[in-house]
Design brief:
The protein has 8 helices and 5 strands. The chain is an alpha+beta fold and 242 residues long. It has one domain. The chain is globular and about 60 Å long. About 7% of the residues have low confidence. Bound molecules: fe (ii) ion (2 copies). One fe (ii) ion (FE2) binds next to helix 3.
Length: 242
Amino acid sequence: MKIDKNIQRFESELKIIDRPGMDKLIAYIRKSDFYSAPASTRYHLSCEGGLLQHSLNVLDALRGILAPGEGRVWEYHTAGRVVCTIPDDSVTIMALLHDLCKTHYYKISTRNVKNEQTGKWEKAPFYTVEDKMPLGHGAKSAMLAMQFIKLTNTEMYAIWHHMGFTEQGADFGTVGKAMEMHPVVLAVHTADMMASRFMESESGNKEIFADMPAGQEAAGSAAAPASDAPQFEKAPPLVPGV
Ligand SMILES: [Fe+2]
Ligand SMILES: [Fe+2]
C-alpha cells in the first residue's frame, strides 16, 4: 500500500470538485488522522493508511457498479432501466467521505504476545477504538462533512445510511425508505461491502486489487483481472453432486 500515492489521489479527486469549503474540508482531513488511521480494528485494512485505502476502494467499487451516462453523470441501472442518475462530483463525495466518522476514532494500544521463537513475552501494538467524537457512524460522517461543505440531499442520505440494514439498531423502514427515495444509497452500501469483503485483507488490498489504476478508468469494465491472478473460488452446488 502506497500511502503517499493514495493521499495524492484522494486529494486530487476532491480538489476537482467545485464546491465552496472543499479547501477547508481537505485542510481538516490533513490535520486529522484520516491518512494514517486503519479502516477497522481487525479483518479489513487494520493497518496504517487503511481508512484512506478503503475510501478509495469504495470509490472504485462504486464507479464499477454505476454506468457512465451523458456528460459528467453516472447512471444506476436495475433490470435495464435507469433508476437514478448521479453527478460525478456526488459519486466522489459519497465514496470518499462516507467513513469520515473514523477520524479521531482509533488508537494504538499494546498487549503482551509470546514470541514463539524465543519463548519470551513481548509487547505488540494493536488497534482499538477510542471514539473522541461519539456521534454515531454514517450520521457523524455527514455532519462532519457539512461543517465544511454543503451536501446535496442525495449525498447526505447516501453517507448517512451507507451501512444499510447492517447499521447497529437500524430501522428497516427508515433505511428502506431512504433507498427508495435515493436508490444510490443501496449502491454506496453495496460498494462499501464490496470494498471490505472482496477487495481488502487485513494488511492491504487483495492481490487482484493491489494496483488499482488511479482515476475513473478504475471503473468495473476496465479492471479485468490478469489471467494468472488468484480468482475467487467457484461456489459449491447447493445440492451435492449437481
Ligand atoms: Fe462505515
Ligand atoms: Fe466503509
